[in-house]
Amino acid sequence: MTQAATRTRRGFSLVELMVTIAVLAVTLALAIPSFANLTAQNRLAAASNGVQAALMAARQTAISLGRPVSLCAGDPATGCNGDWPAGQWLVYEDSDGDGRLDDTETLLRQGTVPGPDGAVVIEGNGPFDEAIVYLPEGRAVKPGGGFAAGTLRVCVRRAIGENAVEVVIAASGRVRKTPVDLDGQCPPL
């Protein structure tokens, strides 16, 4: 055998390499938007489930302990601030039912919105400007004792069909979720 016949071919030709790169580019162009939509849907589900779970935990804990338990927008360092778009909330035993996290009260749970800042937006209507106080019988009231049925809207700014979920507290204190299509927008509630 000659030396030329025993040589094996190594590597790719320029044409093969260009075809591979073109196929890869088309595949990525199709996959990236789908992945971004999937990520947005997952963030929306995680955030709305987290808000619903916090409300349900506050209600159930108030019933179990036989004492008021509150939920509000805020963080442990600053307490309740009503700033739902910041994406943080607290659930705490509110022994005096005043809607403020005092030094003597126990923080039961805290939560934050998943994802980078601004990827998920939370807005609340009137009752959520301050804490929601769950009474031992499970009813939700404002710190002054007034009616506290209201809505928290969890939203992503992406046209993914139903891009928002409204978490609604009924007069009884029960919580339900309703998907909403806002056409990729997150208007104020």
Brief write-up:
By secondary structure, the chain is of the alpha+beta class. The protein is built from 2 helices and 10 strands; from the N terminus they run H-H-E-E-E-E-E-E-E-E-E-E.
Which short descriptors sum up this protein?
26% strand; 2 helices; 189 residues
Q: Would you kindly provide a written description of the structure presented here, covering whatever features stand out?
A:
The protein is an alpha+beta fold and 189 residues long. The chain has one domain (13-180): minor pseudopilin epsh fold (3-Layer(bab) Sandwich). 30% of the residues lie in helices and 26% in strands. The protein is built from two helices and ten strands. Strands 1, 2, 3, 4, 6 and 7 form a six-stranded antiparallel beta sheet that branches. A four-stranded antiparallel beta sheet has the order 5-8-9-10, with helices on one face. It starts with a helix and ends in a 9-residue tail after the last strand.
Helical content (DSSP H or I, runs of 4+): 25-40%
The CATH class assignment is Alpha Beta
Q: Structural class, judged by helices and strands?
A: alpha+beta
Number of helices: 2
Biggest pleated-sheet summary: 6 strands, antiparallel
As for the number of domains, it is 1
- Strand segment tally: 10
End-to-end distance? 82 Å
CATH topology: minor pseudopilin epsh fold
Kindly report the name of the CATH homologous superfamily.
Answer: minor pseudopilin epsh domain
What is the residue-mean pLDDT, rounded to a whole number?
88
Shape: elongated
Pattern of helices and strands: HHEEEEEEEEEE
